[in-house]
Amino acid sequence: MDLFEDEAPGGNAPEFTVSEVSGAVKRMIEGEFSHIRIRAEIGRVSFPRSGHVYLDLKDDKSVLASVIWKGVASRFPTRPEEGLEVIATGRLTTFPGQSKYQMVIEDMRPAGVGALMAMLEARKKKLEGEGLFDPARKRPLPYLPEIIGVVTSPSGAVIRDILHRLRDRFPRKVLIWPVAVQGEKCAPEVARAIEGFNRLTPGGAMPRPDVLIVARGGGSLEDLWGFNEEIVARAAAASDIPLISAVGHETDTTLIDFVSDRRAPTPTAAAEIAVPVRTDLMFALDDFAARLGRGLTRGLDLRGQRLRDLSRALPRPERLVEPARQRLDYASERLPAALRRSVDARRLRLSEAGGSLRPATLRRAIQTEADRTTKLAARLTPAQTRLSANRKDAFLARAARLRPEALSAEITRQTADLDRLTQRLADSHKRLSDKRAERLDAAGRLLETLSYRKTLERGYAVVRADSHVVTTKEAAQNAGAIEIEFADGRMRIGGAAKPAKKPKDSGPTQGSLF
Fold first, then answer.
1. Which among 147, 246, 350, 390 has most CB atoms closer than 10 A?
2. Is the pTM for the entire model greater than 0.70?
């Protein structure tokens, strides 16, 4: 009762403002819980535009509101997802605006590999349900790509292994898109690299690859987690360019392996999948050429044998022409008599026709033809006049439709086109001549550089014997004459002389080198 009496109006109990009470509670909570670690399951997660992350940490009985500030969230290797079991490290504080307490998370990691695997299995089921793992949507790889795009770190051993294997098997052009292969930047950079390669225009200034390789070396599940992100899997599934995933070693499996068109156990194996072995192709080509040659030879031999077999069944050419030759002889024997009979018959018909002809008949025929010609001539003059008039009218009508201005404009335009084409021809000829002159000069400089005379200018010499180059001491000793070529000319030296016989006196004698 005394307590209530003290707290009665007008008592000695101090009065506090709301802000003072909130500040006291805030100082007490932050002082007692300035650094705590909590194992919990992530509940509701919110990603506002500010970049901060608001989430709930919960267990089977309680819920703790939490916040991850923007600068801290960008450093987390794993994106918070609902249902993921995590270990969060941070401090407790209060939010006076709503009279509640919350945890400010400074570090958060999955609670062991089991949590990551559970989240990975959930993602796999989600993407598989959307049909991204369907084998029917996987595209075949080009047999021999011209350009290969590689998405990997430019400083690791992976890109060196890929380039080395491509150089050994079949050298191809390689475009490298550098990305981070682990950490929080890995997933967005890999996704942007895949999308960037797909946005390239075929045949443009930067050529578009024919096949893509996404590669990374081995590592732990946390190191490879960037390739398990949903953004990477969807970018690989949406790629129009066939994609080979080569992430980790043979035992490592990531989400990109399921959506890619082909999975390689290692980055080196990805290069082997991308291109065939050049020497094997050359051997196969030689084998095909040999088989083709043998097939052609065998075919020609079979056809030749067939032709010879058929030729045996044909008669001899002399037998084929013998009947015709006999008919020709028979016809030649009958020809003179036939000619005589034909001449006699024609002579008889001529005599009969000549006997029926009379001068009066000829005059009447001539007069008839003359009269008919006179009538036709009288009709010809008016007809000719009418024809000339009609053609003149037609010509005048057609001439009236012609305009000299249109012809002049067309002539001017054609002249301008001719001048322009002539100028282009002259410019093209000049460029071609200049280009060929430059190529000739370059070839001349190259020839001068590769000439052995440049070697002579450095102090070397060429030794010849009997028009052949001497390369050994024994050949020089056996040569009859030696010619030495220096940079400034040639010098001929006689053959090696035999040692001179000593004179009878024992005095010293002078020898000769050559």
1. 246
2. no
